[in-house]
Design brief:
The protein is an alpha/beta fold. The chain has two domains: about 5-235, Rossmann fold, CATH 3.40.50; about 255-375 and about 450-535, 3-Layer(aba) Sandwich (Rossmann fold), CATH 3.40.50.1820. Helices cover about 35% and strands about 20% of the residues. The protein has 18 helices and 17 strands. It has helices spanning about 35-45, 70-85, 100-105, 120-130, 145-160, 175-185, 190-205, 220-230, 290-295, 320-335, 345-360, 375-385, 395-410, 430-445, 450-455, 460-465, 485-490, 510-525, and strands at about 5-10, 10-20, 25-30, 50-55, 90-95, 115-120, 160, 165, 215, 255-260, 260-270, 275-280, 300-305, 340-345, 365-370, 470-475, 495-500. The strands form three sheets. It has an eight-stranded mixed beta sheet with strand order 10-11-13-12-14-15-16-17, sandwiched between helices. It has a seven-stranded mixed beta sheet with strand order 1-2-4-3-5-6-9, sandwiched between helices. Strands 7-8 form a two-stranded antiparallel ribbon. The chain is globular, with a radius of gyration of 24 Å.
């Protein structure tokens, strides 16, 4: 399996996927297959090379790095290659990424390939000839834009490039549903930029009828033969450099932590005392961005995706809250954090609680937002009904399932109880926000439910009285778990603060003033100066 890594440049961050051993081979994966999929494929089919496949600018986890023309996009890739320490090396390019390869040959980009191999050029030229483009991908309230994107990607693989009425009888093996799902998640990181990237590359294809200095290869076997003449001239690849933060300490950046339990994806911002921010299941830590922005001026805030969720590794294992707590401790160890504060919400509140109980010597202060305290029979009902299988299939039927699960979570508690009495007053977020939340769920794949189930198996009532570190237990008025504060007041040891807050800051649609006041409440407690202002729950 390929390993993901981030490189920070002036325009943003690029994510790359590395696999194999030997000299460097840089890969632009094209616009219908994910960089992770290409890297895994090439590790098998091109042995003897260290493959570095790039999430192209504007898409995937490179979506924050963007330019409005081919030359600018090529400069971003060149800056990334230079920052990674890649020497001039062969460049293997797929389908519509061909114009980017041509632009990289310009010495003004700052990094140039030693040689360029172009695969699947005929397909890209066929798409250009019939002006193939995805239908508009702007997020829709009903989620059908995801089905539109899935159909576009599938048809690009299945149909004759120049004749959409017939299936292609030649070409690479068709992707399995998991590979196509990986590309859908890559393209959906910023749908408007995927559309723009496709358009820019498609429009530039006619000028590549006879590209100078580019070797066309019809198959990967042909690519292997062409590359074999170069391999002896190249040094073995060096290690990738550590990912660097942005110069602006308040800007959120992405990183990975290598732990014995797996590779953990991180969102990071700020400088100062470390604060580990722990998400609600089942998606990623992306909804915690308002918290990172709010607390970064005073803390170094680090928000991991749980192993099995988001962009972190997906180990096949049983999961409980204790497992997740030890995972978080492994992240702290990997980052060299001897002591840290904790902030956790819902599932994350339980993880923070368990970590504090198990390792109080490592924890300073802990904010536990809306820990799960519901009746046992309700937990049993949730464990039975809340977590249907979510598995990619060849037609993308899982996409509308994921969308509507996420949407219904804002309408009903629990989401599967489709009745008037279960309606929530929080409000449905706009389509763009709901899109991002759904992509976090889809990134977790078939593992999405494991961390979430753990929350409803956990015995919060037995563990909460064992707190020995200063803790604030809180919840906003719109939180479906806010009623648990009264029980938390009875269970928590003396000295624990239990308070209502004006907002749940990671919920969409919260009043800005309420979010600001809630962030201020967290900060006051974490600084240790809030006890006099504590609002105890009656």
């Amino acid at each position: 399996m390929s390993t993901p890594h981030y490189v920070t440049i002036g325009q943003g961050q690029l994510r790359v996927w590395r696999s194999g051993y030997g000299p460097d081979l840089l890969v632009l994966p094209g616009l219908i297959a994910a960089a992770s999929t290409r890297a895994d494929q090439l590790a098998r089919d091109l042995p003897g090379w260290t493959v570095t496949a790039v999430d192209l600018p504007g898409i995937g986890r490179s979506s924050g790095a963007w330019a409005e023309d081919i030359a600018g996009l090529a400069r971003i890739i060149a800056d990334g290659a230079s920052a990674l320490g890649l020497p001039p090396c062969p460049l293997l390019v797929f389908d519509l990424a061909a114009p980017l390869a041509t632009a990289l040959q310009d010495s003004r980009t700052g990094w140039q390939p030693e040689a360029v191999l172009l695969a699947d050029a005929a397909a890209a030229e066929g798409w250009a000839a019939r002006h193939l483009a995805p239908a508009p991908l702007a997020p829709r309230d009903d989620g059908t834009h995801l089905a539109v994107l899935w159909a576009h990607l599938r048809d690009a693989h299945v149909l004759e490039p120049r004749d959409a009425r017939h299936p292609a009888v030649r070409g690479a093996p068709l992707p399995d549903p998991a590979a196509q799902d990986a590309m859908l998640c890559t393209a959906s990181a910023a749908p408007h930029r995927y559309e723009a990237l496709w358009s820019l590359c498609l429009d530039a294809m006619p000028s590549l009828a006879d590209p100078a200095g580019i070797v066309r290869v019809e198959t990967l076997d042909a690519a292997a033969k062409t590359l074999s003449a170069m391999i002896s001239k190249q040094p073995d690849a060096g290690p990738l450099p550590p990912t660097q933060p942005f110069a602006d300490p308040l800007r959120v950046w992405h990183d990975y932590a290598n732990t014995p339990r797996g590779r953990v994806h991180l969102r990071r911002a700020g400088r100062g005392r470390p604060l580990l921010a722990l998400q609600s299941a089942p998606g990623s830590s992306a909804p915690l961005l308002p918290l990172l922005h709010g607390l970064a001026p005073g803390w170094e805030v680090i928000a991991p995706d749980y192993l099995g969720n988001g962009e972190s590794d997906k180990p096949d294992r049983a999961v409980d809250i204790g497992t997740l707590a030890e995972d978080v401790l492994a992240v702290a160890d990997a980052l060299g954090l001897d002591r840290f504060d904790l902030w956790g919400t819902h599932t994350g509140a339980l993880v923070a609680l368990e970590l504090t109980v198990r390792h109080p010597e490592r924890v300073g202060r802990a904010v536990l937002e809306a820990p799960v305290l519901i009746p046992p029979d309700f937990s049993a009902d949730i464990l039975t009904n809340y977590f249907p299988p979510l598995v990619a299939d060849r037609w993308g039927l899982h996409l509308l399932q994921a969308w509507n699960m996420r949407r219904d979570m804002f309408m009903f508690w629990p989401w599967y109880r489709q009745e008037r009495a279960a309606a929530r007053a929080i409000g449905i977020p706009d389509a763009a926000v709901l899109h991002d939340w759904t992509m976090g769920l889809l990134a977790s794949g078939a593992h999405y439910d494991r961390s979430y189930r753990a929350a409803f198996h956990y015995d919060t009532r037995a563990r909460l009285p064992r707190l020995t570190r200063p803790a604030l237990i809180c919840a906003g008025p719109a939180d479906m778990l806010v009623e648990g504060l009264a029980e938390a007041e009875r269970l928590a040891p003396a000295g624990t603060e239990v308070a209502s807050t004006p907002a749940t800051v990671w919920y969409p649609g919260q009043e800005a003033s309420a979010v600001e006041a809630t962030i201020a409440r967290y900060a006051a407690f974490l600084r240790g100066d809030s006890a006099a202002d504590s609002h105890r729950v009656a």
